[in-house]
Design a protein that fits this description.
The chain is an alpha/beta fold and about 300 residues long. It contains ten helices and nine strands. Strand 6 and strand 7 form a beta hairpin. Helix 8 packs parallel to helix 9.
C-alpha cells in the first residue's frame, strides 16, 4: 500500500520543517563574501545540588542525591574552567553566544559581569540544566520560557533572541511557545548546516545549526579526548569551507567549561581555533548576526505559519 503524503510529512516532521535538498537551494552569501559563519557557543550552566524538579530522567544518575562527583565536576566549570575558556576566546577576539542557564545571571555575579563586559550574546538554555522541559504542559513550558525572558530583560535590558531547551529537553510545543515569546531563533533541531525556517502557529522562527557533533559534551560521553575533538573541529571546517565557496555554511562549536576548560584540554581547543581562524573567509558571528543576515537574504519568502 502506498504511503500517503500526510503520513510522509508526519514522518519527516514537516509539520515544523519543510524538506530541502541541499543542492537545490539558492546560495547563501555571508558578509564580506565569507564562506563559513562561525559561531562559538560556550554552555555556561548550573546543575542543582538537590534537583527540585525531576521528570522523565534523573538529573544525577548516581543515586541517592546528592551526587557529589557529578555536581563537583560541573561546579569546577563555573569556578575554574569558564575563566580558561574566556582567556582563549579573548585571544581570538571571538564574539561568543552563550548557551546560558539563566539562573547563572543571579547566582554567579562574577561570571555575569565578565560576560557583559565582553558583550557576549545570551541565548536561553532554560533556568537550570537539571530542570527538563520533557512532559511539561503547554502552560508550564510557557511560564518557564517567560521566566527566562524576564531574567534576561532585567539583567541586559533587551529581549532574548535565541532558545536552546535545557539538556535538549524540548517538547512538541517548544517552537510555538518560543516564537510566541518573541524569540527569533531556535537551537533544538540538529538537521542542517544552514539556517532553516520553522513552521509555528504565530509569528516566525528560524532554526540555527547547533552542533551535537562538534560538541565536547557528546565527545566526552563517547570517550573521545581533546586531541581527537580538536581534529574533528578542523575536519568539519575543511569540508564546510570547501562547500562554502558555493553555498555559505554555518559552523557551530559547542563547548562546556567543565569539559574543555580542564587544564589538559584547553590548549587543544586553542589549536583548533587557530587553525580555523587562520583561513580567510571566516565570519565570526553571534546567533543574532547569522539570523539577521539569513533573514535579509530570504525576506521575500513567506513565513511558515500554520
Amino acid at each position: 500500500m502506498p504511503v500517503s503524503e500526510q503520513a510522509v510529512a508526519a514522518v519527516r516532521g514537516e509539520d515544523r520543517i519543510v524538506y530541502s535538498a541541499a543542492p537545490d537551494r539558492l546560495p547563501l552569501r555571508w558578509p564580506g563574501g565569507a564562506r563559513v559563519a562561525l559561531w562559538v557557543t560556550p554552555n555556561i550552566e548550573h546543575y542543582e545540588y538537590l534537583p527540585a524538579q525531576v521528570r522523565v530522567r534523573n538529573p544525577w544518575p548516581r543515586t541517592p542525591h546528592p551526587d557529589i562527583l557529578g555536581y563537583g565536576l560541573r561546579d569546577y566549570g563555573n569556578r575554574v574552567g569558564v575563566w580558561r575558556l574566556m582567556e582563549v576566546f579573548d585571544r581570538f577576539k571571538l564574539p561568543c553566544t552563550v548557551s546560558l542557564s539563566l539562573a547563572v545571571l543571579d547566582m554567579y555575579p562574577e561570571i555575569t559581569e565578565a560576560m557583559l563586559k565582553r558583550q557576549w550574546e545570551f541565548m536561553s538554555h532554560g533556568l537550570y540544566n537539571s530542570r527538563y522541559h520533557w512532559n511539561m504542559s503547554e502552560d508550564e513550558e510557557r511560564a518557564a520560557i517567560d521566566e527566562c525572558q524576564q531574567i534576561h530583560r532585567r539583567v541586559t535590558g533587551r529581549p532574548l533572541n535565541g532558545w536552546f531547551s535545557p539538556a535538549a529537553s524540548n517538547t512538541v510545543n517548544t517552537p510555538d511557545l518560543v516564537a510566541e515569546a518573541g524569540i527569533g531563533y531556535l537551537c533544538d533541531l540538529y538537521h542542517d548546516d544552514q539556517p532553516t525556517p520553522v513552521r509555528v502557529r504565530r509569528g516566525s522562527l528560524v532554526s540555527l545549526p547547533y552542533s551535537m557533533e562538534i560538541n565536547d559534551s557528546i565527545a566526552w560521553r563517547r570517550g573521545q579526548e581533546a586531541e581527537a575533538f580538536a581534529q574533528k573541529i578542523c575536519d568539519e571546517f575543511d569540508t564546510l569551507y570547501a562547500e562554502g565557496a558555493e553555498h555559505g555554511k554555518v559552523m557551530n562549536i559547542a563547548v562546556h567549561p567543565f569539559i574543555m576548560g580542564q587544564p589538559h584540554r584547553i590548549e587543544y581547543l586553542s589549536r583548533a581555533l587557530e587553525y580555523v581562524l587562520g583561513h580567510e573567509g571566516v565570519w565570526c558571528a553571534t546567533g543574532s548576526d547569522i539570523l539577521a543576515s539569513y533573514k535579509a537574504q530570504t525576506a521575500a519568502q513567506a513565513p511558515l505559519s500554520s
